[in-house]
Amino acid sequence: MIHGFNVQASGTVFTAVPTKAIDRTDDEMSEEKIFSSDKSTKSNDSSQTDVNNISYQTSRKLANSSMVAFTDQSNGKYVVLSLQKDTINMLQSHFGDDDFYKRDDGMIRLDNRAESYVSGWFADIAYKREFIKADSNSDGILDDKEYKNTRNDFNVKGGISDDNKSLYEEITNQYSLVSEGMYVNYREFNNPSNIDDELNATLLKNKDFNNTLTLEEAYNTKDDDKNYENVIFKHANEMIPQALKDAMFEEKMRQLEEQISKKVNALSKLLYSKGDVSQLSPLEKLLLEDELSIVKNGASDMQKVMNDKLDEMLKVEKYMEYK
Description:
This protein is α/β, with parallel strands linked by helices. It folds into 3 domains: about 5-10 and about 150-190 and about 205-240, no CATH class; about 15-145, no CATH class; about 240-320, no CATH class. The chain is about 40% helix and about 20% strand. It has helices at about 25-30, 85-95, 110-130, 130-135, 145, 195-205, 215-220, 225-240, 240-270, 280-285, 290-295, 300-320; strands spanning about 5-10, 10-15, 55, 65-70, 75-85, 100, 110, 155-160, 165-175, 210-215. A hairpin with a 4-residue loop joins β4 (about 65-70) and β5 (about 75-85).
């Protein structure tokens, strides 16, 4: 709950392409000829510089990252890109070290379930979100104009529940063109400059590893799993007419006044019974949960608690009269 409202986000934004897991031996992976243009991983063996076996080769290595290779199951070729250390650590914690083969050239070769998972999200970004198609000059970098031609956005509809207690947003269209989508600014980062950028962001957001990125996950930041509430509240604040905001606020104030009144009545009963909590109904005990915790911690001046609640009620009443 945020700012007095329940916040709900529903629907799927993106879905990884289904892939199968292939479990290889270390000997098989050690014999693979995988080209990388990165100086720290490039081999002197000229047989490894065959670009015909590369489906995608990053042209901009990310900071604090390692070069990673896996198979693009759409064409059987290799993908060579950079994954950040945080992403790799998260993947290793979930899939285990056996799915990460460290090659002699320093590159990490993904295998089995880890490869299947990452390659599924790569295919979603590269082909379904059309990152490769949008890269019109094929330099591996997306400028702002090219990025607008990706389908890395979505459309939603949102609103307020009939009882004015909840804000909600739900997906109405997946894979929208960025130039036509509604929430191009939902990201916590700047626009992705290449596939590596977006792949890292997607993997970090899909923390349940279920191959679907929900609206809630898309709005979350890597350090805050509740950020979607702030995003939806921000959108609502931008779109809701001021008159409706005022009406909603007054309704909240009336609800607050009613709640305080019930607390005062329950506190009066408690005072009359000289603090005998057994005299309260289950609902009254729940209503006074915070106040009773204060008493248990030693602040047993019930009259002071009562006065505080009366002051709160008076302030709300004065506000309502002023309005």
